[in-house]
Design goal:
The chain is mostly helical and 396 residues long. The chain is built from 19 helices and no strands. Helix 1 packs parallel to helix 8 and helix 12 packs antiparallel against helix 18. The two termini are 20 Å apart.
């Protein structure tokens, strides 16, 4: 098993602070993630090697392709910004992944529970700011409504499936419903239609797979609708606009038209990271002149790092899901399977939302992704370790 040279309370408390700070304060999130990364750098090399698994390798490959895209970028002075804007994500994959593997099962569960509680807290803050008229769509202090909504979506995916845990059903049944409803209400108040639709799919999938009861879904939706109704009663500006223009495409038709024009100009390594504003050919046709990306992660990855980057991205996602599905098949009766399944649903929700936004190059959402992937990898690591111990015990 992996061991740390530090008192485990230090990385554990840092992880707790990180899990509740995602959209509350980007500075705090980066501070906690940065300290974790520094601690990891001082761990023994032999222990760090033990924590490197297939998923970490896939992410490292994706990162190396991004690095190559920076080196060969058409706009190197712009693309080089990715080194410090995305660097924390790659460090966090190693550091968070290491410490979640060091922690025992109980600590891992506490981190996941606090991730949900933190999402509900941030959702309440966003709802309160929306009700007070500070913003036109619910968002937290240090994130826009898109990041806020996708973050809540990731937490909602975990929360819905974890409804099936015995501990939650027996001890925290109604508290869990309230937390889930607050998260859903935050998404509704942020007015992200795609994410609201994905959250409905999560609820339907949860019922179909028998991870959540219809009664729970009804109560979650009831509380969320009440909160959303109060919110829109107090602040109806953006909601009214969306009702009056339900077919608005948010400039996506222009984005897709431009994508078709540029599709084969730099197919191998793309134009380089963060070059959207430099390469976009139809700026004058955009309604929103502040658009800074393709609003589609697959397009974003392709135009920034080409087919090489897109292939590395797809391999990474396939690797994550094959790892999680393999765990579920091996441990059908185990409660840990519920945790792994909740992570898979959450990442699937992120992937669906990526067709309308993105997460892997986001300063906030990439760290959320790192946490989710690390929990999945840690469950796999512990499972294999337990089975190896059983084999050794049987052979004696």
């Amino acid at each position: 098993m992996i061991s740390s040279r530090f008192d485990l309370r230090i990385p554990f408390y840092l992880m707790i602070l990180l899990s509740v700070s995602f959209v509350l304060s980007i500075f705090a999130m980066q501070l906690f993630a940065g300290i974790l990364a520094i601690l990891w750098l001082f761990e023994k090399y032999s222990e760090k090697r033990k924590a490197v698994d297939r998923i970490v390798i896939f992410i490292l490959i994706y990162g190396l392709v991004r690095l190559a895209a920076i080196i060969f970028s058409e706009y190197p002075s712009v693309s080089v910004q990715s080194l410090y804007k995305e660097g924390l994500f790659y460090l966090s994959i190693f550091s968070i992944g290491f410490y979640v593997k060091v922690f025992d099962e109980q600590k891992t569960r506490q981190i996941i529970y606090l991730f949900i509680i933190g999402a509900a807290l941030n959702s309440l803050i966003g709802i309160a700011r929306f009700n007070l008229g500070f913003v036109e769509r619910a968002e937290s202090f240090s994130s826009g409504y898109t990041v806020f909504s996708v973050y809540l979506l990731a937490a909602f995916g975990v929360a819905v499936i974890l409804s099936d845990l015995v501990e939650i059903k027996e001890k925290y049944f109604y508290l869990h419903i309230v937390l889930s409803a607050i998260i859903l209400a935050g998404m509704v108040s942020s007015l992200g239609r795609a994410n609201i639709g994905i959250s409905i799919l999560i609820l339907l999938a949860g019922v179909f797979l028998k991870k959540i009861k219809i009664k729970q879904v009804f109560l979650i939706c009831l509380v969320a609708v009440i909160l959303a109704f109060i919110s829109f009663f107090n602040n109806s500006t953006e909601a009214t606009h969306r009702v009056e223009a339900p077919a608005q495409l948010s400039d996506r038709d222009i984005l897709y038209k431009a994508a078709a024009e540029l599709a084969w100009e730099h197919p191998v390594l793309g134009f380089g990271p963060r070059t959207f504003k430099e390469i976009f050919p139809l700026k004058d046709e955009l309604t929103d002149k502040g658009v800074g990306g393709w609003h589609n992660e697959l397009l974003q990855v392709y135009f920034e790092s080409g087919l090489a980057g897109l292939l590395a991205y797809i391999i990474l996602m396939v690797g994550i899901f094959s790892s999680g599905i393999s765990f579920v098949k091996r441990n059908k009766a185990e409660e840990n399977t519920i945790i792994v399944f909740s992570i898979l649903v959450s990442i699937a929700a992120l992937l669906l939302s990526a067709f309308f936004s993105g997460f892997i190059d986001s300063p906030v959402l990439s760290i959320v992704f790192a946490l989710l992937v690390s929990v999945l990898a840690a469950e796999n690591y512990r499972d294999k370790g337990n089975k190896n111990d059983l084999i050794k015990a049987a052979s004696k």
